[in-house]
């Protein structure tokens, strides 16, 4: 009997994305795709779409937990959602976002908390916000063998200092500081940097100066990759939509319609129908009727 495979088409095995894959993509001029996820089914679908990186962002606080900003998000919140995402995604590089106050207080706490993302929650790397003021923590986390993604520009955990969710780096001095910070993060060993809400030409300049990839959100097409908050892309979060978001669906509308249709079916007794119900064999039913009848005498 022949042991030849039926088809001669080679089976290309999909490989897990690593930090080295991202560096290779930048070197080859290939664009990196990244999305956020906070749960198992979304992670499955994003992984199926072959997105390179899944960020379990602390945007969780706003789009899933209903807070006005990301400041109330805790380590326990993040780990809970990271665990769900890591059960759903096999191939994407998984990045856990370090929440407010998990890396600012001391370098030792920063390392311990970063370690929990890998040890307890199945992440491959962590992300944290800030530039020169975070170098010590970043170096210590890297020394523990944990890859770090930087985040510059609009850093939502500093919303109170920044005076709101507003674009950054629009004046030359602020822009120059961001260029310097990006180089410092690269020199410290970050494997990539998120650039959020920056003038497109500034983000392009930074991307061209760096050897590591930049991932833009509201930072134009000159970055090495793009990220969006999945709930914005899907139209699931209808409280507000930032200008830089492209909505690919209106899932809030789809959900609202489905819930209204369900309510109408329940109230009109159209649901459940026979096909949604469990049947009992007639013989067993007859036995039950007899037992019930005898018991009531
Ligand atoms: O928390 C998050 O989702 C983020 C992205 C906006 C990059 O940090």
In short:
This protein is α/β, with parallel strands linked by helices and 297 residues long.
Q: How would you sum up this structure, described in words?
A:
The protein is of the alpha/beta class and 297 residues long. It folds into two domains: 19-249, Phosphoenolpyruvate-binding domains (TIM Barrel), CATH 3.20.20; 260-295, no CATH class. 42% of the residues lie in helices and 12% in strands. It contains twelve helices and eight strands. It has an eight-stranded parallel β-barrel, surrounded by seven helices. The protein starts with 18 loop residues before the first helix and ends with a helix. Bound molecules: 3-methyl-2-oxobutanoic acid. 3-methyl-2-oxobutanoic acid is lined by residues 36, 55, 57-59, 97, 194, 196, 217, 227, 229.
Shape: elongated
> How much beta, percentage-wise?
5-15%
What is the β-strand count?
8
Q: How far apart, in Å, are the first and last alpha carbons?
A: 72 Å
Spatially, the strands of the biggest sheet line up as: 1-2-3-4-5-6-7-8
| Structural Rg | 25 Å
Helices and strands, in N-to-C order?
HEHEHHEHEHEHHEHEEHHH
What's the mean pLDDT score?
95
Count of discrete structural domains: 2
CATH architectural type of the largest domain: Alpha-Beta Barrel
Classification by helices and strands: alpha/beta
Bound molecules: 3-methyl-2-oxobutanoic acid
Low-confidence stretches: none
Q: CATH homologous superfamily of the largest domain, by name?
A: Phosphoenolpyruvate-binding domains
Q: Please report the first level of CATH classification, the CATH class of the largest domain.
A: Alpha Beta
Query: What's the CATH topology label of the largest domain?
Result: TIM Barrel
Helix content: 40-55%
- Count of DSSP H/I helices: 12
Major sheet size, sense and barrel closure: 8 strands, parallel, barrel
């Amino acid at each position: 009997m022949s042991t030849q495979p039926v088809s001669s088409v080679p089976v290309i095995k999909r490989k897990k994305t690593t930090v080295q894959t991202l560096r290779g993509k930048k070197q080859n001029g290939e664009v990196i795709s990244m999305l956020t996820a906070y749960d198992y089914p979304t992670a499955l679908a994003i992984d199926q779409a072959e997105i390179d990186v899944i960020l379990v962002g602390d945007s969780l606080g706003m789009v899933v937990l209903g807070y006005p900003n990301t400041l109330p998000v805790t380590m326990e919140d993040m780990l809970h959602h990271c665990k769900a995402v890591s059960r759903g995604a096999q191939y994407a590089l998984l990045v856990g976002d370090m929440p407010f106050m998990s890396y600012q207080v001391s370098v030792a706490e920063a390392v311990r908390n970063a370690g929990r993302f890998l040890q307890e929650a199945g992440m491959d790397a962590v992300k944290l916000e800030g530039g020169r003021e975070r170098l010590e923590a970043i170096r210590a986390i890297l020394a523990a063998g944990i890859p770090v993604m930087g985040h510059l520009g609009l850093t939502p955990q500093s919303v109170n200092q920044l005076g709101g969710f507003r674009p950054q780096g629009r004046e030359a001095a602020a822009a120059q500081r961001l260029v310097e910070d990006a180089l410092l993060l690269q020199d410290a060993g970050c494997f990539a940097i998120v650039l959020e809400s920056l003038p497109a030409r500034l983000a392009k300049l930074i991307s061209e100066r760096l050897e590591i990839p930049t991932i833009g959100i509201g930072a134009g097409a000159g970055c090495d990759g793009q990220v969006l908050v999945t709930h914005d892309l899907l139209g699931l979060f209808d409280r507000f939509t930032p200008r830089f978001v492209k909505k690919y669906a209106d899932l809030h509308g789809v959900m609202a319609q489905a819930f209204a249709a369900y309510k109408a079916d329940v109230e009109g007794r159209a649901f459940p129908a026979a096909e949604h119900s469990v049947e009992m064999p007639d013989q067993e039913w007859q036995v039950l009727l007899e037992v019930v009848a005898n018991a009531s005498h």
